[in-house]
Write a structure and sequence with these properties.
The protein has about 325 residues and is of the alpha/beta class. Helices cover about 50% and strands about 10% of the residues. The protein is built from 14 helices and eight strands.
């Protein structure tokens, strides 16, 4: 029996005893479970890591759809959910870097309004023509500079909250976990779409988007002994994707491959948050801003369950002392 169930039973017994003793009416709309969760949560908030479970937040890839992560994080903070480790793939790495560096949400909102493809790449009409004529890939070096401008030239060991960025070794297919050195460099490597952007060189490896190996890297949280895993999936509705172009066909191939891995990974998570952003294309940053609200709304729906899981995985002695 979980802590909450045992405490609910105790609470109900005490409640009926009080009603019988003092003979006053009890509001039938009163929710005993909500009352106990709120009461116990006040205790959880005061517990340090070690006395409460280690919580990981896993932010999946999805291009423009990943703007919804900002809303998820806003809800997590508003409800005072502890986050000890953030693991991100692609855009999840970028938003995760902002969060772990404690960029104010107001600034994140402003950035989401302004961002476009030109913000993080050299894609333009001239470079497109060059790519067609020479087969040269685009550079996303601009993305690293952009992230540096937002968070500063910060290193992983300087972050307020631990972060891991997931990338893929294009030569071997290995999943690469970046958690040392420059945060901006790691987030850029994790977000390098293969076939579009040049691979990022790192320690004699050529790194591209982490979504090739693990788009929602839940299993990484298991490696680092996290007790509660909250995963955020911003998957597309693949039936609505445009497959009439080379880029559209490439992205559809990546999506189909990734969906198989994602489902397996998401089954391992304690909570999965799914913002309603499936109709948004990967590069449609112009229309991505409203997805922040979708992320916030999707998170609010599961906040109670998140708290219950954290409470149930906390040792009872810390809840009653």
């Amino acid at each position: 029996m979980t802590h909450i169930k045992k405490l609910i039973i105790s609470f109900i017994i005490c409640l009926f005893a009080t009603v019988s003793l003092f003979s006053f009416d009890v509001d039938t709309a009163f929710n005993e479970e909500d009352f106990l969760i709120d009461t116990l949560w006040q205790k959880i908030e005061k517990l340090s890591l070690g006395k409460r479970p280690k919580v990981a937040l896993v932010l999946g890839g999805g291009g423009a759809r990943g703007i919804a992560h900002i809303g998820v994080l806003r809800a997590i903070c508003k409800e005072r959910i502890p986050v000890d480790l953030v693991i991100g793939t692609s855009v999840g790495s970028i938003v995760g870097a902002f969060y772990c560096a404690q960029v104010p949400f107001e600034k994140m909102y402003d950035l989401a309004k302004q961002i476009n493809v030109g913000t993080f790449s050299d894609i333009n009409y001239i470079s497109l023509l060059d790519m067609l004529l020479t087969d040269n890939l685009f550079s996303n070096k601009k993305l690293e500079k952009y992230i540096n401008n937002v968070i500063g030239d910060i290193r992983f060991d300087e972050l307020k909250i631990s972060l891991i960025c997931v990338a893929t070794d294009l030569n071997t297919g290995e999943r690469i976990l970046l958690r040392e050195g420059s945060v901006a460099f790691a987030a850029r490597a994790s977000s390098t779409i293969p076939g579009i952007f040049k691979p990022v060189e790192y320690m004699q490896r050529y790194l591209v988007d982490g979504g090739l190996t693990e788009n929602v890297p839940v299993n990484v949280a298991k490696i680092f002994d996290c007790d509660v895993i909250i995963a955020v999936a911003v998957a597309p509705d693949i039936t609505k994707n445009n497959i009439d172009t080379a880029f559209g066909t490439l992205m559809q191939t990546i999506y189909i491959q990734g969906m198989m891995f994602d489902q397996y990974n998401l089954d391992v998570a304690d909570i999965v948050i799914r913002p309603n952003v499936g109709s948004l294309s990967v590069l449609d940053f112009k229309n991505a801003y409203p997805s922040i609200d979708e992320g916030f709304a999707a998170t609010k729906k599961v906040i109670k369950n998140i708290k219950k899981i954290i409470i149930d995985k906390t040792k009872e002695k810390y809840l009653i002392e």
